[in-house]
UniProtKB/TrEMBL annotation:
Protein name: Phosphoribosylglycinamide formyltransferase
Catalysed conversion reaction: N(1)-(5-phospho-beta-D-ribosyl)glycinamide + (6R)-10-formyltetrahydrofolate = N(2)-formyl-N(1)-(5-phospho-beta-D-ribosyl)glycinamide + (6S)-5,6,7,8-tetrahydrofolate + H(+)
Binding positions ((6R)-10-formyltetrahydrofolate): 64, 106
Gene transcribed to yield this protein: purN
Signal peptide feature range: none
Source organism per UniProt: Rhodanobacter hydrolyticus
Homology family: Belongs to the GART family.
The keyword Transferase is annotated on this UniProt entry: yes
Length: 203
């Protein structure tokens, strides 16, 4: 399965995918790592892993949709079959997202549908939740709103802070994302208008 990753930051989730691939646990070909930030650590990781990279600067485009169209044209040109958003900090134009329905997933650091958007650890603490987690979902025009495919859960303790939650959760994300990408690569998770796992709708 040809996989592209879009990331805006350090790329620890990308690193987890590359590690799983290198360990022979993930039957994927990484065809591109793209970013909206030329300084993204994810691009350095990709270079070190000999994965083609692309950085487009939003300032070079007159508006958001034209940036998104340009970036996704490169994703399509790379032969990508599955697009993984991993720390990609942009809301993508709905028309562009529509072309990737069923072929794009995102990992989000909350137990969706709780806390779509930003600052999820802080919101979890402020709400006094005793559980937190991460979700992998198919990307739709609704921000962090597509069908959730899988979640990882962690307990929230009294001494937890945003930083301690982020750290513990990231370790879970690094397990969860490769597991979902692997399920798709092995044909166990499919999209035929809705997310299906082993032929059963993902509830
Ligand atoms: C992670 O918390 C991930 O859930 C979110 O972006 C954060 C950074 O990810 N999507 P990474 O370390 O850049 O992969």
């Amino acid at each position: 399965l040809k996989v592209a990753v879009l990331a805006s930051g350090r790329g620890s989730n990308l690193a987890a995918l590359v590690a799983a691939r290198d360990a022979g646990a993930l039957p994927v070909e990484m065809v591109l790592v793209g970013s909206d930030k030329a300084s993204a650590g994810a691009l350095r990781l990709a270079e070190a892993a000999h994965i083609p990279t692309l950085a487009l600067n939003p300032k070079d485009y007159p508006d958001r949709p034209s940036f998104d169209r340009a970036l996704f044209a490169h994703v399509a040109a790379s032969g990508t079959e599955l697009l993984v958003l991993a720390g990609f900090m942009r809301v993508i134009d709905a028309a562009v997202v529509a072309q990737w329905e069923g072929r794009a997933i995102n990992i989000h650091p909350s137990l969706l549908p709780k806390y779509p958007g930003l600052h999820t650890h802080r919101r979890c603490l402020e709400a006094g939740d005793t559980e937190h987690g991460a979700s992998v979902h198919y990307v739709t025009a609704e921000l962090d709103g597509g069908p959730v495919v899988a979640q990882a859960r962690i307990p929230v303790g009294p001494g937890d802070t945003e930083a301690s939650l982020a750290e513990r959760l990231l370790a879970e994300e690094h397990r969860l994302l490769p597991a979902v990408v692997g399920a798709i690569a092995r044909g166990r998770l499919r999209w035929n208008g809705e997310a299906m796992f082993d032929g059963r709708p993902v509830t």
